[in-house]
Write a structure and sequence with these properties.
With about 350 residues, the chain is of the alpha+beta class. The protein folds into 2 domains: about 220 residues, Murine Class I Major Histocompatibility Complex, H2-DB, Chain A, domain 1; about 90 residues, Immunoglobulin-like (Sandwich). About 25% of the residues lie in helices and about 30% in strands. The strands form 3 sheets. The protein has an 8-stranded antiparallel β-sheet, sandwiched between helices. A 5-stranded mixed β-sheet has the order 13-14-10-9-17, with no helix packed on it. It has a 4-stranded antiparallel β-sheet with strand order 12-11-15-16, with no helix packed on it. A hairpin with a 2-residue loop joins strand 2 and strand 3. Helix 4 crosses helix 6. The radius of gyration is 22 Å and the shape is globular.
């Protein structure tokens, strides 16, 4: 049975840039780093650090230019990683007690960052914390409140409310983070440029399924799907790599489910993250390529991609899928967030870690 979702058409062509940090503390898994953090700009990984290497390293060659303006940038990122590793371990132990868990595999996750609209100059910050793949608590900067998603997070919320954590977070999310994002964008402008794809409708024979194929887009944060009267008809297509650094996606449409008189109501829609205009291709007979064979869709093995990074990004995709909140982020010393207060240079105003909530 086809899933139906509302389709929102965005009408202004502009780009939303983002700086996002993902942190995972994974306990109970041997021969695997307990703590891993990766940072992404516009969905492209730019740095990485884990508890095994204890060193923050650039994942894009142009990120080495950051030391031109800030010689201590990577040293500071390394120290932040080490601090967050230590506090994440303490916080995970505390959360295990709160959830009455012991032993086994458990995860303590954080997702935080900011978005910047390069047309309106609008800025949004976001901060989300989770445990074992489920939302725990997040910051809503629109109302300046912490929202406890689970009852175990209520003591954390009350503590952070008493400590005025929102003010610290707001400063980092709306000032420090956007400034850093804009600096990174200057160095990686050419590499981070968004590229729209070429979209084709393919069919082996007049009676077979029609495939919508989008290729040559960048980055890989994209969606491709069929719609009828503005509602999604089929599953969203999978995104695969091309050999030249760009990406491709394809999704099939069973024509038996679409009467001939309804063809003009059906479209293939491509959405690239950060680009506000959808690329829409109408289902029309003269636009379908029927060369006897469907064009070959080359799938390349991602031998060069690190398993850890893919695991973390997929994990957070699942973690945020049901409660995606694009406008929040962290800073005090919450679920191991030694990061923000230290980055803010707040000195003695650092906030307590979650492991002290019960005190």
């Amino acid at each position: 049975m086809s899933c139906l979702y509302p389709l929102f058409h965005l009408f202004v062509f502009a780009v939303l840039h983002s700086l996002t940090t993902l942190e995972v503390f994974l306990s109970g898994v041997p021969n695997f780093p307990e703590f891993t953090t990766i940072t992404l700009v516009d969905g492209v990984q730019i740095s990485r650090c884990d508890s095994s290497t204890k060193r923050a390293v650039p994942k894009q060659s142009w990120m080495t230019k950051m030391t031109a303006d800030d010689p201590l940038y990577w040293d500071r990122e390394t120290q932040r990683c080490i601090r967050n590793d230590l506090t994440a371990k303490i916080d995970t132990d505390t959360l295990l007690q709160r959830f009455n868990e012991s032993g086994g595999i458990h995860t303590n996750q954080k997702r935080y960052g900011c978005q910047w609209d390069d047309e309106t100059d609008e800025i949004h910050g976001f901060a989300q914390f989770g445990f074992d793949g489920k939302d725990l608590i997040f910051l809503d900067l629109r109302t300046d409140t912490w929202v406890a998603v689970q009852s175990q997070a209520l003591p954390i919320k009350l503590l952070w409310d008493r400590q005025g954590a929102v003010d610290h977070y707001r400063n980092f999310l709306t000032r420090v983070c956007p400034e850093t994002l804009k600096k990174i964008l200057r160095f990686g402008q050419s590499s981070l440029k968004k590229v729209l794809p070429e979209v084709s409708l393919l069919q082996k024979s007049p009676s077979s399924t029609v495939t919508c194929h989008a290729t040559g887009f960048y980055p890989d944060r994209a969606k491709l799907f069929w719609t009828k009267d503005g509602e999604v008809l089929e599953d969203i297509g999978e995104t695969l790599p091309n050999g030249d650094g760009t990406f491709q996606s394809f999704v099939d449409l069973d024509l038996s489910s679409v009467p001939a008189e309804d063809w003009d109501k059906v479209s293939c829609v491509f959405q690239l993250s950060g680009v506000r205009d959808d690329l829409i291709t109408k289902l029309q007979r003269d636009k379908i390529k029927t060369n006897g064979e469907r064009e070959t869709l080359t799938v390349y093995c991602l031998l060069g991609l690190c398993f850890v990074e893919r695991f973390i990004m997929l994990f957070f995709s699942s973690f945020n899928s049901e409660n995606a909140r694009p406008h929040h982020r962290p800073c005090p010393r919450p679920l191991g967030c030694s990061l923000c207060c230290c980055d803010l240079g707040s000195g003695s105003s650092q906030l307590s870690s979650v492991n002290r909530v019960e005190g």
